[in-house]
Amino acid sequence: MLSRRLVSQSPRLSRAASTRARGREAILQKSPDDVVITFAKRTAMSRAKKGQLKDIPVDELLHGLFKSTLETTRLDPSKIEDICVGTCHPPSPLYISRAAALAAGIPYSVPIQTLNRLCSSGLMAIRSVAHAIQSGDISLGVAVGVESMSQNPRPTPEITEPVGKNPHAHDCIQPMGWTSEMVAQTYGVSRQKQDEYALISHTRAEKAVAQGIFSEEIIPIELKGAVVSVDDTVRPGVSMESLYKLKPVFPDWGEASTTAGNASGVGDGAALCIMTTRSRAEKQGLPILGKWVTSIVVGVEPRVMGIAPIPAVNKILEQTGLAKEDIDVYEINEAFASQFAYCVEQLKIPMEKINPNGGSIALTHPLGMTGARQLVTGLAELKRRQGQLLCTSMCVGSGMGAAGIFVNEQL
């Protein structure tokens, strides 16, 4: 009786759960209850310890992003009903996120939360806001992904001896470089193949920079009296020869095939999107850039956590009734070329659809930012291509993976 009463009191939630659209045609249909994205931008990114954001703490980075967003959108900040910030390693993340929002002019009546699912934190922030809108708890929210790996490098996880005796528990806290070497060793991904996939990322990113493509997704922000608006992470002139000359960075593990040139960069940056219902966006004349469809999370053996985009992409396509061919652009995170190469070849997706402007090997991978950055990058690319469907995915530290499906509405 109680469960029946709860369902009857939440018709919107019950309807959303029971009538999820399946298949390309159904997903492309428009409904007043759709969760839509009205703004999606990112900051320029920076190489950790060396780049333009190396001295910028997370609160200052968020403050700059919030201020620029409000100035650009002219959004009344009092209309924001919740903010969710995905981030991994800064201490007291809720306090500094709340402080940054208040300092940017967002009133104290607007609540905020933070979450951490490592490399998928930005996507999980989007998912959290989408679910709140979908359930009717709010109708307008802001999702953010942010990380300063300069200021807050990965802490060394510590577990007790009884827990560490479990082999999976032991493996889940190992350095991510170790998991890269385990993937290469387990699945026979050669150094040559890793460098070949890395070169694709570097070459595409260099071309995108030359064409000014990233300027379409970057929002300039003012930090310490200077405007930051251009990535400083992309290395020009990368070749197979230059990649071949790089020494392995983890010589004591596996095949020792991971290098600074075929692994994602350690970096700093933030990305943000504003989300609401289609009916509210249309009523208030807000631009509709895209639609959130769904997001999923999976678990895999921690030792080879990098293979997680394979089950994640397969699961989300099955849940949505989509074929791989239905997706116009994939943004699959390049944590390491070892895992990226294996995922691409196992998924059997044409490379021209994946990370068309390069991925984290060339652009860098600020952990909490990436899940939100992929949405920003993917929607901008769909607009250029006049494509309709985006799938994002990433492996997640400790042995997980995540994926999301979005629709481009800028046709």
UniProtKB/TrEMBL annotation:
Under catalytic activity, the entry for this protein gives: an acyl-CoA + acetyl-CoA = a 3-oxoacyl-CoA + CoA
Q: Domain named Thiolase N-terminal: which ranges?
A: 35-278
* PROSITE patterns xrefs: THIOLASE_1
Report any one BP term from Gene Ontology: phenylacetate catabolic process
Task: State if Transferase is listed as a keyword.
Answer: yes
The segment annotated Disordered runs over 1-24
Q: Where is the Thiolase C-terminal domain?
A: 288-406
Q: Output the Gene Ontology terms for molecular function.
A: acetyl-CoA C-acyltransferase activity
- List the keywords (alphabetical): Acyltransferase, Transferase
InterPro entries the UniProt entry points to: Thiolase (IPR002155), Thiolase-like (IPR016039), Thiolase-like_sf_Thiolase (IPR050215), Thiolase_acyl_enz_int_AS (IPR020615), Thiolase_C (IPR020617), Thiolase_N (IPR020616)
Family (UniProt): Belongs to the thiolase-like superfamily. Thiolase family.
- Protein name per UniProt: 3-ketoacyl-CoA thiolase
Name the species this protein comes from. Answer: Heliocybe sulcata
Upper taxonomic classification of the species? Eukaryota, Fungi, Dikarya, Basidiomycota, Agaricomycotina
